[in-house]
Amino acid sequence: MSAPSGFSINFSGQCIIVTGGNRGIGYAFTRALAASGANVAVIYRNHPTALKDVGEVSKEFPGVKIKAYQCDVSDTEVVTRVVNQINEDFAIPEKKTTPITGLIANAGVSVVKPALELTHEDFKKIYDVNVFGVFNIARAVAKLWQDNKTKGSIVINSSMSSQIINKAKDASPLTQVFYNSSKAAVSNLTKGLAAEWAKDGIRVNALSPGYVKTAQTAGMDKGMRDYQAGQLPLGRFAEPDEMTGQALLLLSDHASYMTGGEYFIDGGQLIY
Ligand SMILES: NC(=O)c1ccc[n+]([C@@H]2O[C@H](COP(=O)([O-])OP(=O)(O)OC[C@H]3O[C@@H](n4cnc5c(N)ncnc54)[C@H](OP(=O)(O)O)[C@@H]3O)[C@@H](O)[C@H]2O)c1
């Protein structure tokens, strides 16, 4: 009788795209995917240390290919061009089909301002990335899979803010109505795309983090962060690494019956 081999996820020979994979939660996705054998195509917008930071992951995991691409996810033409480039760059000669098997649409932005001060520019800044940008990259990858007649898995990084209004202190909201509503929109988009593409073998799910220690939260008032952490059943913000297990599971064949779902990794915030 052979010894149990445990539960494992292995993406060897597969290429997975991570938008915003150069820092924050996305960087944790990039590292976790590389550690699981995936070749990773990282999309970033314009961060000055992106190439160096992605290069560090290459050094840590020399057995896999990791490459960074500058690309604004809100620009449809650029997204299409970059996805086709990734398809070529990661091609495996003996494999006739696309090397891309998964996508984490993670890039997102926020503007914190009282509603009376928000502008149409703020709206476009947020929705162009958090909703249209997610749509753009998901569609480009799904088209490639449909053209190649291959299956694939998409994980959309939404937020627990799709369901709740975050608090800054008792009975006082964190003022970011465009951000919260964009996350509600992208969680619904997840279900719609899952419904349309299920027949093509394409699964689409949302991962919805609670408070995570990244640049997005580090810039906020410490008193507010302590208050938010104190409200959580688990009593603390998450480390970016704590988002990776669910994302990798959803990308893998272990999740072959999961589509159209939204999975909250929120330290228990939504219990109350
Ligand atoms: N942190 C949290 O507590 C939290 C909670 C719930 C949900 N989330 C969600 O999780 C995701 C990642 O958050 P984070 O905190 O890790 O963010 P972050 O540290 O602020 O990083 C944002 C990432 O998105 C990329 N990006 C932004 N606009 C882009 C564009 N137009 N095109 C391509 N890439 C773009 C950035 O690229 P550059 O580096 O080049 O600018 C960067 O890699 C977001 O969708 C966020 O809403 C975060």
Describe this structure in words.
The protein is of the alpha/beta class. Helices cover 40% and strands 17% of the residues. It has a single domain (15-162, 175-213, 241-266), classed as NAD(P)-binding Rossmann-like Domain (Rossmann fold), CATH 3.40.50. The strands form 2 sheets. Strands 3-2-1-4-5-8-9 form a 7-stranded parallel beta sheet, with helices on both faces. Strands 6-7 form a two-stranded antiparallel ribbon. α1 crosses α8, α3 packs parallel to α4 (120-148) and α4 (120-148) runs parallel beside α5 (177-197). It starts with 14 loop residues before the first strand and ends in a 7-residue tail after the last strand. The structure holds NADP nicotinamide-adenine-dinucleotide phosphate. Belongs to the short-chain dehydrogenases/reductases (SDR) family. This is NADP-dependent mannitol dehydrogenase. Keywords: NADP, Oxidoreductase.
Quick overview of this protein structure:
The protein is α/β, with parallel strands linked by helices and 272 residues long. The chain contains 8 helices and 9 strands. The chain has a 7-stranded parallel sheet, sandwiched between helices. A two-stranded antiparallel ribbon has the order 6-7.
How confident is the prediction overall: mean pLDDT? 97
Q: What are the low-pLDDT stretches, counting only 5+ consecutive residues below 50?
A: none
Strand order, main sheet: write it out: 3-2-1-4-5-8-9
Record field, number of beta strands? 9
The CATH architecture classification is: 3-Layer(aba) Sandwich
| Helix-strand sequence | EHEHEHEHEEEHEHHHE
Termini separation comes to 47 Å
Q: Quick one: CATH superfamily?
A: NAD(P)-binding Rossmann-like Domain
CATH topology: Rossmann fold
Highest CATH level, the class: Alpha Beta
Overall number of structural domains: 1
State which percent range the strand residues make up.
15-25%
Silhouette: globular
Summarize the amount of helix as a percent range.
40-55%
- Rg calc: 18 Å
Count of DSSP helices?
Answer: 8
